[in-house]
């Protein structure tokens, strides 16, 4: 089947190409009867407007781009769910891409969104601050999600508090040898969580903290950490693991729960509170980040900036993490 073009619609409707364009753009001066006839032909022929061509002509788009780091992690897809809801409320579509936690991949995705003239971009940075200079130069608005920024609007979680909440919970449940498993130290969130955890531990003499930085945070890493714990002499094992995300906690549980009594022998605490954490065979305690709300707030910040007059002042919205205590740290809750 050949592609239906604008002039095909005009020919079948007996009007000019300009009239068809006016109907598509809801120009109020178009005669109601003519508009009805044109829409009928559009439906009959199956014409689909070329939004990319339109955005190139007008310099505007009704699409928002979202680049995040890991599509396999439910935390980020939940972020996108919240952002999509906010976008839809204001008549925007959400296009997303994953950087695979790589700055090069992030840069390529930003280039793609630049070429498609998206109205604005949400970014969850891979490592350091993203290179947004070209987007900003052409007037494209940028909001950072899950990262604080002074140069853009941003929404983020207080990860220092999150680290402190997690460590304090483990100490309050009687743990004295805590293993903190984090991603690369180059990521600000990891540094903040370690800082909060160390502050909580420092307030309790006799509590030991070991920190393990992994190149990434995944189920496979969790399994590897679990195997390493089981290989230790019993007297050297930690009595609690504070995982950098819930995927690590899930992988860890897959290994240790078959050998150890969780939480009697080993308490396990995750981070993010993805749905799978609470739905595990042994429900996993976690530090909740309110991912869907964070994504929603990020998109609202972007949409508000798109409609803001000159002199817009960037906002940094900080969210408060929450402890979700479940069986993996406190035993069966009745």
TrEMBL record:
<keyword id="KW-0804">Transcription</keyword>
<dbReference type="Pfam" id="PF13377">
    <property type="entry name" value="Peripla_BP_3"/>
</dbReference>
<keyword id="KW-0805">Transcription regulation</keyword>
<dbReference type="Pfam" id="PF00356">
    <property type="entry name" value="LacI"/>
</dbReference>
<dbReference type="GO" id="GO:0000976">
    <property type="term" value="F:transcription cis-regulatory region binding"/>
</dbReference>
<dbReference type="InterPro" id="IPR010982">
    <property type="entry name" value="Lambda_DNA-bd_dom_sf"/>
</dbReference>
<dbReference type="GO" id="GO:0003700">
    <property type="term" value="F:DNA-binding transcription factor activity"/>
</dbReference>
<dbReference type="InterPro" id="IPR000843">
    <property type="entry name" value="HTH_LacI"/>
</dbReference>
<dbReference type="InterPro" id="IPR046335">
    <property type="entry name" value="LacI/GalR-like_sensor"/>
</dbReference>
<dbReference type="InterPro" id="IPR028082">
    <property type="entry name" value="Peripla_BP_I"/>
</dbReference>
<keyword id="KW-0238">DNA-binding</keyword>
<protein>
    <submittedName>
        <fullName>Transcriptional regulator, LacI family</fullName>
    </submittedName>
</protein>
<feature type="domain" description="HTH lacI-type">
    <location>
        <begin position="4"/>
        <end position="58"/>
    </location>
</feature>
């Amino acid at each position: 089947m050949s592609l239906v073009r604008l002039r095909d619609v005009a020919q079948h409707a007996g009007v000019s190409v300009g009239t068809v364009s006016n109907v598509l753009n809801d120009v109020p001066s178009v005669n109601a009867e003519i508009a009805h006839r044109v829409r009928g032909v559009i439906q009959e022929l199956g014409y689909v407007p070329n939004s990319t061509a339109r955005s190139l002509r007008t310099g505007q788009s009704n699409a928002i781009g979202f680049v995040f780091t890991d599509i396999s992690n439910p935390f980020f897809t939940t972020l996108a769910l919240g952002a999509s809801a906010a976008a839809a409320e204001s008549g925007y579509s959400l296009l997303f891409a994953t950087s695979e936690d790589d700055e090069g991949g992030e840069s390529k995705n930003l280039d793609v969104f630049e070429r498609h003239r998206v109205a604005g971009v949400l970014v969850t940075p891979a490592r350091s601050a993203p290179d947004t200079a070209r987007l900003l130069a052409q007037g494209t608005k940028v909001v950072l999600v899950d990262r604080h920024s002074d140069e853009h609007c941003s929404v983020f979680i207080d990860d220092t508090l999150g680290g402190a909440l997690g460590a304090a919970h483990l100490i309050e449940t009687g743990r004295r040898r805590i293993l903190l498993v984090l991603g690369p130290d180059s990521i600000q969130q990891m540094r903040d969580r370690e800082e909060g955890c160390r502050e909580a531990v420092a307030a309790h003499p006799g509590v030991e903290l070991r920190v393990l930085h992994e190149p990434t945070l995944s189920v496979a890493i969790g399994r590897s950490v679990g195997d390493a714990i089981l290989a230790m002499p019993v007297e050297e094992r930690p009595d609690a693991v504070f995982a950098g995300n819930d995927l690590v906690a899930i992988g860890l549980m897959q290994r240790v729960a078959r050998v150890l009594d969780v939480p009697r022998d080993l308490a396990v605490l995750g981070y993010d509170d993805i749905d799978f954490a609470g739905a595990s065979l042994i429900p996993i305690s976690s530090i909740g980040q309110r991912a869907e709300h964070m994504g929603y707030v990020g998109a609202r910040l972007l949409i508000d900036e798109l409609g803001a007059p000159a002199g817009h002042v960037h906002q940094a919205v900080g969210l408060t993490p929450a402890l979700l205590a479940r069986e993996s740290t406190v035993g069966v809750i009745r």
